[in-house]
């Protein structure tokens, strides 16, 4: 690996720019609210692009194109499910959650919100939800570190162990220093880079394979079923892929963006920007994997790395088809996808440990400066655990993401969604929803029942638990009063 390697130089410049943004954000981080939610100051563009970038991790440029490359368009049901789920999340949850968190003790984290919304004096709701965040997010962080390691390994010929640390170091640096503002500002840059890569790459692959007609003929020649949306699928298989969309309602790193918006008025514009960005990115991702089938069929001599690991299809196309300097920029988009999501996850874990354990149970009188530094140390702690989990080179990005996504979607999704639209939900209902959702996902995943993605039974059972357990009791007058005030505020300002 030469120091004059254009791809390496591009990576170094990109990483240096992200760390510089971290130091700029450091100057605006004065208290825990700034570190965790950026002082609720995000405008519609940053809210939109940050939500999108924090959502679309390394699987967008590795896991999903790889799945499309292997199986054809039948894997694209997942993209359809995600678009529908994201839109409904923006429509029903985003604005209401922004207002509800403000009316319920100006909550900074999801456990904080649950605790205030349901007047949980015991702290049980806060502890259980914080534990769910730590368990599933550490798995999610590991998936990001695996994706980063794969990128550095295949781009620079590093060993997997070295690549593991190289991929994680920059993200840890700017998250450690700048907190939420650094994460949100860098997300905006990273989202721009990702959409550039995912629009440009499929166009160049199409040109390299002789245009639309030639490309489609080559894909059909390889396997006519590549065009078949129902290839090797069952009703349960399609429902499982579409079910990914349910996960949006419970992802703490995405919900944090809604909580950090400067006002409810910003949400509608942010929704339009975010959904446009998402549709273009997912369309580009599917196209990269699909057109890659034609390219590597025509050039089997360079298909070795992709046949060995199909998640490298975007990486290999970028290296083969572009000038090394442009390839460096495109490959930085994978780093952007990894870093944007990993940084959000590290920050949410840090928030849970700092706000929901340290401040609540250990040091109620801790100063803001102390809490910010505890938050930074927690970022390091979670990152080290995730690196240890990612140490197995046989890990697959999409597999790790699917488990963590299901865990959050089922444990928190129904609780968040129902808590912002139904005022009669109770504390015991919320507790039952989190426990039933999380336990269902773990048990269903272990036994692989019916071949159904575990988020679907988890979401359904958690929703039923919330409804029936809430019906056994009643919310307090204070809970109803705050809900009505927040709903009125939302309707006045949306």
UniProtKB/TrEMBL annotation:
InterPro entries: Na/Glc_symporter_sf (IPR038377), Na/Pro_symporter (IPR011851), Na/solute_symporter (IPR001734), Na/solute_symporter_CS (IPR018212), Sodium:Solute_Symporter (IPR050277). It is found in: Cell inner membrane; Cell membrane. Keywords: Amino-acid transport, Cell inner membrane, Cell membrane, Ion transport, Membrane, Sodium, Sodium transport, Symport, Transmembrane, Transmembrane helix, Transport. PROSITE patterns: NA_SOLUT_SYMP_1 (PS00456), NA_SOLUT_SYMP_3 (PS50283). CDD domains: SLC5sbd_PutP. It holds the Pfam family SSF. The chain crosses the membrane at residues 6-26, 76-94, 124-152, 164-183, 195-219, 234-256, 277-298, 325-350, 371-391, 403-422, 429-444, 450-469. It is a multi-pass membrane protein. It comes from the Bacteria. It catalyses: L-proline(in) + Na(+)(in) = L-proline(out) + Na(+)(out). Catalyzes the sodium-dependent uptake of extracellular L-proline. Belongs to the sodium:solute symporter (SSF) (TC 2.A.21) family. NCBIfam families: Na_Pro_sym, sss. This is Sodium/proline symporter. It comes from Pseudomonas sivasensis. The gene is putP.
């Amino acid at each position: 690996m030469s120091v004059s390697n254009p791809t390496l130089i591009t990576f170094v410049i990109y990483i240096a720019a992200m760390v510089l943004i971290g130091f700029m954000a450091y100057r605006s981080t004065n208290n825990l609210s700034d570190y965790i939610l950026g002082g609720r100051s995000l405008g519609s563009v940053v809210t939109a692009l940050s939500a999108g970038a924090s959502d679309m991790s390394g699987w967008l440029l590795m896991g999903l194109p790889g799945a499309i490359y292997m199986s054809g368009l039948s894997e694209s049901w997942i993209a359809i499910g995600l678009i529908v789920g994201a839109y409904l999340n923006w429509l029903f949850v985003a604005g209401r959650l922004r207002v509800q968190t403000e009316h319920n003790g100006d909550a900074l984290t999801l456990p904080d919100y649950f605790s205030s919304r349901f007047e949980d004096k015991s702290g049980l709701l806060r502890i259980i939800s914080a534990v769910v965040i730590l368990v599933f997010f550490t798995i999610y962080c590991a998936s990001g570190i695996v994706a980063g390691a794969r990128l550095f390994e295949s781009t620079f010929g590093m060993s997997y162990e070295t690549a593991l640390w190289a991929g994680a170091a920059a993200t840890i640096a700017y998250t450690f220093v700048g907190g939420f503002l650094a994460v949100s500002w860098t997300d905006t840059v990273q989202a721009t880079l990702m959409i550039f890569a995912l629009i440009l790459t499929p166009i160049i692959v199409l040109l390299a394979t002789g245009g639309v007609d030639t490309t489609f003929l080559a894909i059909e020649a390889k396997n006519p079923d590549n065009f078949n949306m129902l290839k090797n699928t069952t009703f349960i298989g399609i429902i499982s892929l579409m079910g990914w969309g349910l996960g949006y309602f419970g992802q703490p790193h995405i919900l944090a963006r809604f909580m950090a918006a400067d006002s409810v008025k910003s949400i509608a514009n942010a929704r339009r920007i975010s959904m446009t960005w998402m549709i273009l990115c997912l369309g580009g991702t599917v196209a990269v994997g699909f057109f890659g089938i034609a390219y590597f069929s025509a050039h089997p001599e360079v298909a070795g790395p992709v046949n060995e690991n199909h998640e490298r299809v975007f990486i290999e196309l970028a290296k083969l088809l572009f000038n090394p300097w442009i390839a460096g920029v495109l490959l930085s988009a994978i780093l952007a996808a990894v870093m944007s999501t990993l940084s959000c996850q590290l920050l949410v874990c840090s928030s849970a440990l700092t706000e929901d354990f340290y401040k609540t149970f250990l040091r109620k009188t801790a100063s803001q400066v102390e809490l910010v530094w505890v938050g930074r140390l927690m970022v390091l702690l979670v990152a080290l655990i995730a690196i240890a989990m990612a140490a197995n080179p046989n890990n697959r990005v999409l597999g790790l993401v699917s488990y963590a996504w299901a865990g959050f979607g089922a444990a928190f999704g129904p609780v968040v969604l129902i808590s912002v639209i139904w005022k009669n939900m109770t504390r015991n209902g919320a507790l039952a929803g989190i426990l039933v959702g999380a336990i269902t996902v773990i048990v269903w995943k272990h036994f692989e029942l019916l071949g159904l993605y575990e988020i679907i039974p988890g979401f359904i059972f958690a929703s039923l638990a919330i409804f029936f357990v809430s019906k056994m009791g009643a919310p307090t007058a204070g809970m109803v009063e705050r809900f009505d005030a927040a709903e009125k505020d939302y309707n006045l300002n949306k």
